Structures are given as C-alpha cells and as structure tokens.
Amino acid sequence: MTDAWAYEGGPQMARGEPSVTLLEGSTFCLSDGGGDVRPGAEQGLFVSDTRFVSRLELTLDGQSPEPLALRRLAPYGAAFVTRRVPRPGRADSTLLVVRRRFVGGGLVEELTLRNLGGEAAGVTVSLVVEADFAGLFEVKEGRAVPRGPVETATSPALRFSYGHDQERRGLVVEADGEPAVFSEPPSPAGLAAARLVWEVAVPSHSEWTTRLRLVPSIDGEEVVPRYEPGAPVEASLPATELAAWRRAAPHVSSRDGALGALLTRSIEDVGSLRILDPASPRRAVVAAGAPWFMTLFGRDSLLTSWMLLPLDPSLALGTLHTLGRLQGEKVDPLSEEEPGRILHEVRGGLDAGAALGGGSVYYGSVDATPLFVMLLGEARRWGAGPEEVARLLPHADRALEWIERFGDRDGDGFVEYRRATDRGLANQGWKDSFDAVTFASGRLAEPPIALAEVQAYVYGAYRARAELAREEGDASRASDFEARAAELKARFNERFVVAGTGHVALGLDADKQQIDSVTSNMGHCLWTGILEEATAASVARHLLSPAMFSGYGVRTLSATMGAYNPMSYHNGSIWPHDNAIVARGLVRYGFVHEAHQVVEAVFAAARAFGGRLPELYCGFDRSEFDEPIPYPTSCYPQAWAAAAPLMLLRALLRLDPDVPAGRVTCDPAVPHRYLPLAIERLKVAGHTLSCRVDRHGWSLEGLPDDLELVAGDEATEAALG
User: Fold this and answer.
1) Predicted pLDDT of residue 355
2) 213-238: per-residue pLDDT in tens?
3) Which of 11, 39, 53, 516 has the most crowded Cβ, counting Cβ within 10 A?
4) Maximum separation of any 2 CA atoms in the chain, in Å
C-alpha cells in the first residue's frame, strides 16, 4: 500500500512512544512502537471485546529488532521500521526489517527483510504467538488471568481454541514460507504459545518477505477477513471504504491552514470509529472511542451523530435504528433496563459479566433517552425521509413514555436518576465519574439527582416531537407537546436559576435543594433553548469568566468551586465536545463574540495537540502554561471529540436546515483569522452544499428550488424560535 498519504504526517520514533493503536470497525490492535505485543501488557489484537492475541513478538537470531521509526499508513495500518541489531564488532546493521500491519476482521502482516550489505545475510526469524482470549475489561484493568485450557494445534495451520459452556473462541495463524512451528513452554501465567521459525538467507541487495494472516473465530464462525489473500491492500474493504468516506466528506479551506488540517483529521478519525450493527451489517453506527470503547454508547453515539449530520446523515439514522432495536422492554434492576429506556453501552466479550450491570447491555443513562428523541427531530430537519422517521416514531414515543413514567420518579416534573443497585453507575449524566456532582462547597450530592442539562434535553425532546406531530398533521398532539415544553421551561427557570448569581444550578438533589456549583452543564441549557433570555445572558457571562474559561476552552467546573481540580476527569478539565455544545448554545442566543472565544480557544488547543483533539485535557489556565496539558488517559481517537470541530464550524456558519418547513437558515459570523473560508460538500436532504465566506460577504450554493435561504436577523429569530 502506498504511503504517499501519511496518517500521522510523517515518521515517528518507535518503541519509546506509547502504545500504537490500529483500528477498523470492532477490531483494534495495541502494540509497542516496534510492532510487538508484549505479554502482561495492556496490548493485543481485540475483536468484539475479546483479546485474540496476547503476545506477538519478533526476534532475529534471538534478539528483538531495534526500532527506527513508525509510519502510520491509515487508521487501520502502519509500517514498523526496525533493523537487526548489529553483529558483534560492527557499528552498523545491514539488515532492515519492516513490518506492515493491517487490522480488520483479524490481522494481516507483511514482514520484509532487506539486505543492504555486500554479502548474503543468514538469519533465524522467529515469531512467538500467544492467545489468552481475555475479556477487554480484564485487560484494561490489568487483571487478565488464564481463562482455562487453551488448546493448540500445529497442522495444517497453527490454531488456538478455547471453549466454556456454549461459548467458543478460536484463532488461526497462517504464514507463507512454510515456517517450522514449535510449541512453547507454558508462560508463568500458564498460557500456551507457539513459535514460528524461518531459516532465511537473504542475498546481497535483495529482499525476503513473508505474509501472516491471523483469523479469529467466535462460536465456531470465522470472523470475515477484510483483506483478500494475495490482493493489494489498496483493493481491500477498509481501504475502499475509507477512500469513499474521504471523497464524500466535507472539505474545508481557510487562510488558517491548521483549521483545514484539523477538519481533515477529525473526519478521518470519525471514519475510523464507524462500526456495523451485527443485526444489520449494512447499518453503520459510531463507536465511542479507541482503544477501550470501540462499541455502541447511547449518549456518545447520539451526540456524535448529531454533530456529524453535515457530514453523513446516515450515521444518525443508523444509530437511531440500532438503539431503537435495543430499547428497553422490561424492568431489570441489575442492567437498569426499563421499558422505553435507551441504553448506556453494549459489550460483547467473554467477561461481559464484569461490565456495568453484569451483562452485555447496560441501560444506566439518564440522558440518552431524551437525546434519542431530539436526534430524530434534528435528523428530520436535515432531510431524513418521512418514511424513515415514521419507522422510528414508535421508539421515540416509547422514550417519551419512559421520561414521564420512569424518568420522573417522584412526579415533580423533572427527570431524576438513582442507580438501582451498587453494580451501576452512581452518576448517570455525561459527567458520570463518582465525584462529578458536587455542591459549590465540594460536598457530594445525594441521589435522586435531577441534572440541569437533562431537563434541557427533555425540553428539546418535547419540542422535537411537537414538530414531528405537526408535520404529520396531528395538531392536537403537537399542541400537547408544545404545552409540555412551555410548562417545563417555566418550571425550570424558576427552580434551577440560582438567586443572586444568575447561573444555572448543576441540578437538584434528593431534598430538592439546588446543587449550586458553577459548571459547563448550563451551556447545554443554552443549546436546547430552555433558558429565558435574561438568564441566558447571565450564563454566558459565567461561562466566559476567568474562573470558567481557561483560554483553551470552558472548564467543566469553575475554579472557584470546592471540588475544582484541573487534572480531574470532570471537575475542572476541558472537553472539546462540551465546548462545541456551549458554542452552539451561545450562538443560539446571539452571543457571537463569546462563541468566537470558545471556538478559537478549542482550535488553539487542537493546534497544540498536533491537529487532533483528544477526549479531554487539563483545565490549567493559558496564562500559566503556553500549551494545554494533556489528560493522561484521554482516548485517541474519541468520537465526540473528533466530531466537535464540525459542530464548532457549524456554530460559525450559524447553519440550521429545516427541510419540512422548506428553509435553510444561514448567517455566517467567522473570525477574520479564518477568512477566506470555504466549506464544500455539506449534506442537506440529499443535496451537496458549499459555503464561502470572506471579508466582503458570503454565499451558500447548491440549494434546491424547494428550499428557501433565510439569512440575517430572520436567521437569528428562527434559531431562537
């Protein structure tokens, strides 16, 4: 495969760098910088939350090759460039070793030895393979232990197999060059391994190459390989699908070249996080993030799909259909399933019992259910077909029933959460760490807890359902949901706005007391429009105050709060997706200058991170450190972080389609540093639009005759409506 297009933009140092992640669909591989998977490390080849390869170590004449560089070819492929350790008495090596690895439905690897010397090179090539079939959680938490006897066979190909009750897992290792295969002594952990050995003589100025194929199987069925034996990688499904994704994706050009590079990289990352619904293999959804969250998450997938509507509306529909298929049917305290509830996460490994709720699907999310209805309404506004929406409406109505029957536990008109057992999440909003919901003093809030942004999402869900009903011609139902939304808005502004400060409380606790900490959650209330305009102005001031705004974005928690810690996960850190929602909310209420501050701060952070936004980063002030400080376990790539630049860009364009109403509102307000700015291949209702903005004006091209362009003050009024 040609590496003219470099995924990372060039070579990097190899073994000294952190673990290298390659991913494609539900397959991912973690290795060191030289390509080895080391035993006992949080590394391996994973498919469907199971580690199929726990060791993959290459040696030449008994020694590990010396790393030189790493070349990332694509999200799913890399070339590990190494050399044989110099012979005794020699300063230099004459044997270059290149491992070209590609993942997808398993793993393929091309191992090439290039002799740069003047005489033939004799070398013993050895590759040790081990399979422990550990579950993802066991590996992630450093507690992987032998699951049971793993059987090995060496003829006609190397095979590993494990079975317990009705569950079976297997791995077939095939290699060119007829290597000798030897069983290895059991490891200290009791795991079986095998060694493939080639005795090779590489002529002067020549090459020797072998190819390996590692094919997993689940319950007796081989995972369909994504690479055809002997076919060039360029013709493989991962390569052709990624090429099609690139061709269809929006293209951004700007005077600030870093902005275009960021959008290109973000789109690439999102493309690598697409996975398929096993029940409908043609339906793509978005996984939450690599490496440990390559699965469907309710909240993450819904918000990411929302942000990606200008890029690929089908991801929103795929996510909605898949979540609808798995929508709650019964009351189960362990999994927290309830009728109509939208799930929190799906897991599929052999250790699913260690997952939240002790099963493959866990429902402990308080916000995924209203977000489901909101996304359906937004997808229709962007042009999802009426027939498609009609298929999803019963799921939306069941979600709304959950909101009022199970979500509002005490009948006070607000949606609360409290985990059903100690196996669930203590906090069930997007800030779901155990210490994320605190009072200004730092004291933890007691559940049941009604979060501010959850009420805002419910408001958005009511508004969305009203619009869908009105389009159906059901005026009575539309009026009913509009009335519910108006009542919730009035009650929310009365109960959640903190007297004297004008900020929105994080939530209400078990005693219906305001959880009075100052957080970024109130920016989500701007996004859905639940705030009165006077409160919105106060919220905007708080969000951009020195205590909340670091210069690299809005913090999750104000620096004046008792629980503030800029190095924490949710109590002072900065999350790009959170800031994207804040920026959209600011624009909705006309706070364009404030939105620009947020957008430019996040884009500045992206430049510092090499043109790629992490899941989160530390909340230290920009005046203290001239670059943002990374959060140590942040996911790369992570879905809603990768999608955030598209939402930030949409905030600058102030772009809002309403296809059922026959209009597209647009009123770009773009900082001068990015001008001229051109965005091509935006998707609305099956049409491809282009927007161009310079210091003299702007244009939106490609609108069909049945869509009217609404601009200027009318666009602002439409957004507030």
Assistant:
1) 62
2) 999 999 989 998 899 888 889 899 99
3) 53
4) 89
Q: How many CA atoms lie within 13 A of 574 on its CB side?
A: 33
- Cβ proximity of 516 and 500 under 8 Å: no
CATH of domain 249-683: 1.50.10.10
The bridge status of strand 708-710 relative to strand 663-665 is: parallel
How far is C-alpha 500 from the geometric centre of its chain's CA atoms?
Answer: 39
Cis status of the peptide bond prior to 660, with omega within 30 of 0: no
**Helix 521-528 vs helix 452-472: angle between axes, to the nearest 10 degrees?**
20
Cα–Cα dist 232/712, whole Å: 52
Q: Tokens standing for 100?
A: 């070209």
* Amino acid 5: pLDDT: 27
Q: What is the DSSP string of 461-509?
A: HHHHHHHHHHHHT-HHHHHHHHHHHHHHHHHHHHHSBPTTT-PBPSEE-
Task: Walk across the sheet containing 450-451 and list its strands.
Answer: 450-451, 507-508, 514-515
DSSP 26: T
Query: What pLDDT was estimated at residue 582?
Result: 98
Mean pLDDT for 413-424 is 96
Residue the block writes with tokens 């244009």: 699
- Contacts of residue 158, Cβ cutoff 8 Å, sequence gap at least 6: 129, 152, 172, 173, 174, 175, 181, 194, 196
- What is the C-alpha separation between 567 and 574, in angstroms, rounded? 10
Contact 603, 648 (CB under 8 A): yes
Please choose, from the candidates 164, 116, 162, 130, the residue with its C-alpha nearest in 3D space to the C-alpha of residue 37: 130
Place of tokens 């094919």: 215
In Å, how far are 277, 399, 423, 425, 649 from 339, measured between CA atoms? Answer: 22, 8, 20, 19, 37
Q: Does domain 20-231 have CATH number 2.70.98.40?
A: yes
Query: Which has the minimum average pLDDT: 101-110, 201-210, 288-297, 457-466?
Result: 288-297
**Do 135 and 114 contact (CB within 8 A), yes or no?**
no
Is 512:493 a contact under the CB 8 Å cutoff? no
Residue type present at position 651: A
Cβ neighbours for 153, distance < 8 A, ≥ 6 positions apart: 159, 161
135 close to 350: Cβ distance less than 8 angstroms: yes
Any idea where the domains of the chain sit in the sequence?
20-231, 249-683
Nearest to 365 by CA among 307, 297, 310: 297
Lowest-confidence segment of 276-290, 333-347, 411-425, 679-693 by average pLDDT: 276-290
